[in-house]
Design a protein that fits this description.
disordered N terminus; Immunoglobulin-like; eight-stranded mixed beta sheet; Aminopeptidase; about 30% helix; four-stranded mixed beta sheet; 2 domains; alpha/beta; globular
Length: about 450
């Protein structure tokens, strides 16, 4: 149609039109293209994530019969004690490639009977691998967790088999694979890999760890809790899909006072707490390095009737999110292994999708690595509200932990979920021709290799 119309034009008009079309063709990409920076080191780590390795971890964990918190702790082949020792052995193997920077141990405490889900005193043990940061001035800590214990229908049954392949050997496998790969690399911040115990008995292992972190003053910047991350199909709706992965994050933080909550609401920042910023970060960075997987932001702290190991951290004022599969199958969670009316029940590895688990592990690894390589977040981020203005002036301080090569100022309309614009500057202030009444802003520090810190939302200042 276009060519036939051109034949009706005189040669001069045709030449001018072709020149215009060529100019549009050349110039349009300059305005429409989106450049995504991938750190080659992180991309290489992500490429190492192996579905075969993940399958082997899950198979080994299932072989212990049950990993119930109250199960046998002295048997070398069955029960929670054998499972803990297995994870510790693997962590120690990975640590050999760390140049002495990774320390592995079982962090234990004795829990008294509580009249609820602990009917006798029991030794609780979290299996930990700490990959120390290389920058002495950088005290930041980033934690990735999965829970080691498993359960049957009766939460107090500590004897019968409870394979727990997906809930939560899958999460522990993701932690182990991240530890295997990241142990061979250096990061400014410290990364802690942990298989917590006692989740099914009331988030006991994560509560113990979160309280220890608070008591000892750890500078915990982010917690990625992985729970049920390896299956691609759902009961009732019968959806089969391994291209979506959920991240749950709280809105208004647990620990805010009534006065602070009123201030958050008055500024419209209900969706901009630290954990929600972490969730957005997981989506942006994770999708940058992981093909054929969309991170779905769930604006809830967790699912209905359930609670995960990120909650004790949130309750103590730390930043944490829960990562979990998109489509849950309740025939394979908290079930005894059996066939009933022709339906197979039980949390067996045969119902898992290890390619899906591989991709979900890549999301975790890329997020952790990018955080630990990045400078610390900017401090004292302020947006000026002294005058009525259709411009926005932001100021901040450079991070102390590591020199930043510059800063990204993020922006989105107030009705949008994700950041829609990004501005780079080497200065510690910026004036933008966008009204503070119509947009939300945040500031990130950026390293020379393009690794971004978590975003910090400005507070009003004069």
């Amino acid at each position: 149609m276009l060519l036939s119309s051109l034949t009706l034009l005189n040669p001069n008009m045709m030449n001018r039109l072709f020149t215009l079309l060529i100019t549009i063709f050349i110039s349009t990409p300059l305005f429409s293209q989106v450049t995504i920076h991938r750190d080659p080191e992180i991309a290489g780590m992500v490429a190492e994530v192996s579905s075969d390795s993940l399958r082997s971890y899950v198979t080994d964990l299932v072989s212990f019969g049950t990993r119930h918190l109250l199960s046998n702790q002295s048997d070398s082949k069955k029960g929670i004690g054998a499972a803990r020792n297995y994870v510790l052995r693997r962590f120690n193997q990975f640590a050999q490639a760390s140049g002495g920077r990774m320390t592995c141990f079982i962090d234990t405490t004795t829990l008294p009977a509580d009249g609820k889900r602990v009917n006798r005193p029991v030794l609780l043990g979290n299996v930990m691998a700490i990959l120390k940061g290389t920058n002495p001035a950088d005290k930041r800590v980033f934690i990735i967790s999965g829970h080691l214990d498993s359960r049957r229908i009766n939460v107090m049954d500590s004897v019968g088999d409870a394979p727990g392949a997906n809930d939560d050997a899958s999460g522990v496998a993701a932690v182990m694979e991240c530890a295997r790969i990241m142990s061979r690399h250096a990061f400014s911040g410290t990364v802690i890999f942990v298989a917590v115990s006692g989740e099914e008995q009331g988030l006991l292992g994560s509560a113990y760890l979160a309280q220890r972190a608070k008591d000892e003053g750890w500078d915990v910047r982010a917690v990625l809790n992985n729970d049920i991350v390896g299956s691609n199909n759902s009961t009732e709706t019968h959806i089969i899909n391994n291209t979506q992965f959920r991240v749950f994050s709280e809105g208004i933080p647990h620990y805010e006072t009534e006065k602070q909550i009123k201030r958050i609401i008055s500024l419209g920042l209900e969706n901009d707490g630290a954990s929600r910023q972490l969730a957005r970060y997981v989506k942006e960075v994770g999708e940058r390095y992981t093909d054929n997987l969309t991170v779905m932001l769930e604006y809830r702290t967790d699912r209905f009737l359930r609670g995960g190991d990120h909650l004790p951290f949130l309750e103590r004022g730390m930043t944490a999110v829960r990562l979990t599969e998109m489509n849950e199958n309740f025939n394979h969670q908290h079930q005894d292994v059996r066939i009933e009316n022709g339906v197979q029940y039980g949390d067996l590895a045969t119902f898992m999708d290890f390619e899906y688990l591989r991709k979900n592990t890549c999301i975790n690894l890329s997020t952790l690595a990018n955080l630990a390589k990045a400078p610390g977040a900017p401090g004292n981020v302020v947006i000026e509200v002294r005058n009525l203005s259709n411009e926005s002036l932001l100021r901040w301080k450079a991070p102390e932990e590591q020199k930043a090569a510059g800063f990204y100022v993020l922006m989105r309309p107030t009705a949008e979920s994700m950041w829609t614009k990004k501005f780079f500057t080497k200065e510690t202030e910026i004036r933008l021709p966008y009204s503070k009444d119509n947009y939300f802003f945040a500031v990130q520090s950026v390293s020379e290799s393009g690794n971004e810190s978590l975003p910090i939302v400005p507070v009003p200042g004069r």
